Amino acid sequence: MNRRTLLSTGLIGGAALLLTACSENDELASQAGSDQGYVSGSGVVSQVPKDKRGEPLELEFTTLDGKEMSLADLRPTPVVINLWYAACPPCRKEAPALKALADEFGQKVQFIGVNVRDQEAAAGAFISNYQIPYPNMLDTSGDMVALLSGVLPPQATPSTVVLDAEGRAAARVVGEVDESTLRGLIEDVQA
User: Fold this and answer.
1) Residue 171 backbone dihedrals phi, psi, to 5 degrees
2) What pLDDT is stored for residue 30 in this prediction?
């Protein structure tokens, strides 16, 4: 490599490190994630007032078990969408809480898992290991991530979005979601 190529490579690498570095004092940096590919630490919670929720989210997708689903068909049931992947430590840590809440709310709330990185075998092993009772999809095309891009920062995994009965984004958690926080967000949407 010549000196100019080395310098350019060094500058690009340095810029990438600066962009991925997080600081406890920088809320946007803490939401954007890390170079490890996941958002660590406690989830950053945001709620959207009813009059500012915007349009219902629309997406048709196929679950890992081959079932065709549509966000529109789930209305008027509130929906919890969780973005995850198998090697993400916070995703593994929050999985039991998501399972417990899906069991607790039953048919009153529809949970949907969205695997943003894995192949079918790795996603299936995670679902089996954590006994996840709700439908999951592989977002290999990035359709769900693109749909949620106005709600979530890019590459924010894990993340959880709660849709109201009209299919509008009512709340989000960027990073690991805690059981009591998510229960509160769901109950707020149901009220």
Assistant:
1) -160, 155
2) 36
